[in-house]
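Quick one, T. Sequence first:
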Amino acid sequence: MIPQRLGRTLVFLAGSVVGGLALAFVIVFLRPDLLRAPQPPAAPAAPAAPATAPGAPVASYADAVARAAPAVANIYSERVVKERVPPATLGELFGGVSPRYRQRIEQTLGSGVVVDAAGHIVTNHHVIDKAERVNVQLADGRQGEAIVVGRDPDTDLAVLRVDLGQVPVMPLGRSDQLRVGDVVLAIGNPIGLTQSVTQGIVSGTGRGQLGVATFENFIQTDAPINVGNSGGALVNTHGELVGINTAVLAKNLGVEGIGFAIPVNLVRGVVQEILSHGRVIRGSIGVVLGEVDAAQAERLGLARAGVVITNLFQGSPAVQAGLRPGDIVTSIAGNAVRSQQDALSHIATTTPGQSIDVVIVRGAETITVPVMVTERRTS
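Structure tokens:
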């Protein structure tokens, strides 16, 4: 009996051991982490550093926009356009019948900047050119018809006045302190979108010879300027006016990021002249100037490259003084002449009625010619 009981006991123990091992295998298979050595408690995580350190400046121009934008207005001008009616009959198509014309009202959209408490607004001349009616809408929604105080096609500027009571006024900065790389904001009303703001940098200063105006000294910027932005504000990061947006270069050719603004220092002078005299008084001697490089000078048989007189107005002071086409201008009123714009500016800033010395090269001779300055007339 004892051997039988011992056998049964051994069988029981063996079965228990096998069952325990099987259970342990299943548990380890499902929870392998139970075999790992215990790890010490982890140290508490350090708090994440803030994206911007406390007190650091935030890259936002909202304050500049809030200061400048209320003084930027919408300009709506209406002009009568005469257009030919397409031929409706064979007689009109092949001749024998006079062509027919019709008139329609064309609307132009632009922007303007309020520059004083009297309600004077600066915009581009091309925005209101030949307009029969000019309407202004302020940023706060007030609207009224504007009168044209004066125009200056030579700089593509015009001054309007609107009577809407107390108006917001744009603070004026200084364009002569602008540097390439300075951040600027363009505020205007592109394609009818009220109070749109774009941002860029000053890409260049003193740009000229673009064919936009007679006197060109533009600020170049990559701040997007679109249809309706003409006459709007170019402001610095303090919300001060530094330029009047006026043109975009060759956008129809796919050129992007090249816009131009009239510097505020020039705008100041034009506005002052218009408010004082109703026009801008500039000097003229009646010459047409052109740029001549070294290759052109050699081809034309001229002594040197530079600024050359290409034509003269009949009866002008230049004709009376004995200047001729082909004369190369090197100095005006004691100022060296480096470009056509340079020469025109020296003449224009001379008060009509004064005499200036024009130094020219004619063949192998250098001649000083005194010329009387008269007032420049614009159409």
